[in-house]
C-alpha cells in the first residue's frame, strides 16, 4: 500500500515535468521554424555611392558614401545573426555601376533589395525620413521598413513615395530605397555622425525586413499598428512627372523667363526631393 501511495505521489510531478518538456519543445520548434524561414530568404544590401562617387551635393561636408556603407555593414551583421543570407553590392569604398548592383539583386534567389541612402538639399532646414519603391509588390516591404525607420528616428516623417529610380525600376525582386535623413541638416547630420544612431537606423531597417510579412493588405493613412499587423502605407506617386521632368531638362536652354519664374514657385519639399533624386539616378 505504501508503495502504491508513493507511486501516486510521483504521478503529478511526472505530469508537470512532461508539460514543461512539451512547452519547451514547442517553443524550440517555433524558434527553429523562424530561423529556418529567415535563412531561406536573401537580403541584398546596397550601400549607395562609393569610390569616386561621394554622394550628396557640392560642398556637402559629410560624405554620404561613408555613412551608407557603415549602416549597410551594421545591417548585414544584424540580419546574419538572425539567419538571413546577406549579399552586399559593395563592402568597401569602391564604385559599383548601377547595372551591376541590379544584376546582383536579380540573380539572387528568393531575395529582397534594400538600398540605403541619405538625403541632401541646398536648404539646410530640409529634414526627415522617406522611403521609395516602384513595383506594386514592393509596397509591403516599403511600408514595413518606413514604419520602423520613421517611427524610430527623431526626424519628421516625409512618407512613402513611388518613383522610378534606376535601382528600383530595373529590380525584378521586391526593392526599396530608404533615405535615412538629410546630411545637409545640422541636427540630422550630427545624429548620423554618431555610431549609436547609425546602429539604431540599422536596427530599424532590420525590424522592417523581419516584419514585412505582417503588413496589412489595405492602404492606411495612419502609422498605427493593429495587433501584430503593420499598416500598408499610403504613398505619393511621383512616377507621373518623371518623363516631363526629363523633357524639361533637355529644353532648359530654350526656357523663357516666364517659364523660369513659374518653376521658382515649386514647393521647397519637391525641390529637396529633386536634388537627391537626380543624384540617385546617376550614381546609385
Mean pLDDT: 79
Quickly count the domains.
1
Q: Which structural category do the helix and sheet elements fall into?
A: alpha/beta
Q: How many angstroms does the end-to-end distance come to?
A: 83 Å
Determine the number of helices (DSSP H or I, runs of at least 4 residues). 10
Largest sheet: 7 strands, mixed
Task: Kindly estimate the percentage of residues that lie in beta strands according to DSSP.
Answer: 15-25%
Report the helical percentage: 40-55%
Can you tell me the residue ranges where pLDDT is under 50 for at least 5 consecutive residues?
Answer: 1-37, 242-272, 280-284
CATH-defined superfamily: Zn-dependent exopeptidases
CATH fold-level name: Aminopeptidase
* CATH class descriptor name: Alpha Beta
Number of strands: 9
Shape, per Cα inertia axes: globular
How is the largest sheet built, in terms of strand order? Answer: 2-1-3-6-4-5-9
Secondary-structure element string: HEHEHEEHEHEHHEEEHHH
Nearest-angstrom radius of gyration?
24 Å
CATH architecture annotation: 3-Layer(aba) Sandwich
Amino acid at each position: 500500500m505504501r508503495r502504491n501511495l508513493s507511486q501516486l505521489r510521483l504521478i503529478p510531478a511526472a505530469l508537470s515535468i512532461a508539460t514543461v518538456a512539451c512547452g519547451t519543445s514547442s517553443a524550440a520548434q517555433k524558434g527553429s521554424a523562424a530561423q529556418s524561414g529567415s535563412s531561406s530568404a536573401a537580403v541584398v544590401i546596397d550601400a549607395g555611392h562609393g569610390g569616386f562617387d561621394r554622394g550628396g551635393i557640392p560642398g556637402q561636408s559629410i560624405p554620404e558614401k561613408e555613412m551608407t556603407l557603415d549602416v549597410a555593414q551594421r545591417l548585414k551583421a544584424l540580419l546574419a545573426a538572425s539567419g538571413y543570407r546577406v549579399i552586399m553590392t559593395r563592402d568597401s569604398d569602391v564604385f559599383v555601376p548601377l547595372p551591376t548592383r541590379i544584376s546582383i539583386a536579380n540573380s539572387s534567389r528568393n531575395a529582397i533589395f534594400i538600398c540605403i541612402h541619405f538625403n541632401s538639399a541646398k536648404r539646410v532646414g530640409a529634414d526627415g525620413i522617406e522611403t521609395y519603391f516602384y513595383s506594386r509588390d514592393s509596397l509591403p516591404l516599403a511600408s514595413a521598413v518606413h514604419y520602423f525607420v520613421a517611427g524610430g528616428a527623431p526626424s519628421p516623417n516625409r512618407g512613402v513615395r513611388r518613383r522610378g529610380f534606376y535601382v528600383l525600376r530595373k529590380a525584378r525582386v521586391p526593392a526599396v530605397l530608404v533615405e535615412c535623413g538629410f546630411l545637409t541638416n545640422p541636427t540630422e547630420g550630427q545624429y548620423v555622425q554618431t555610431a549609436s544612431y547609425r546602429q539604431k537606423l540599422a536596427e530599424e531597417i532590420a525590424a522592417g525586413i523581419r516584419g514585412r510579412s505582417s503588413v496589412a493588405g489595405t492602404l492606411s493613412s495612419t502609422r498605427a499598428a493593429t495587433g501584430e499587423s503593420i499598416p500598408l502605407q499610403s504613398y505619393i506617386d511621383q512616377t507621373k512627372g518623371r518623363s516631363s521632368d526629363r523633357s524639361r531638362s533637355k529644353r532648359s536652354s530654350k526656357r523663357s523667363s516666364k517659364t523660369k519664374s513659374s518653376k521658382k514657385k515649386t514647393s521647397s519639399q519637391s525641390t529637396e526631393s529633386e536634388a537627391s533624386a537626380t543624384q540617385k539616378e546617376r550614381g546609385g
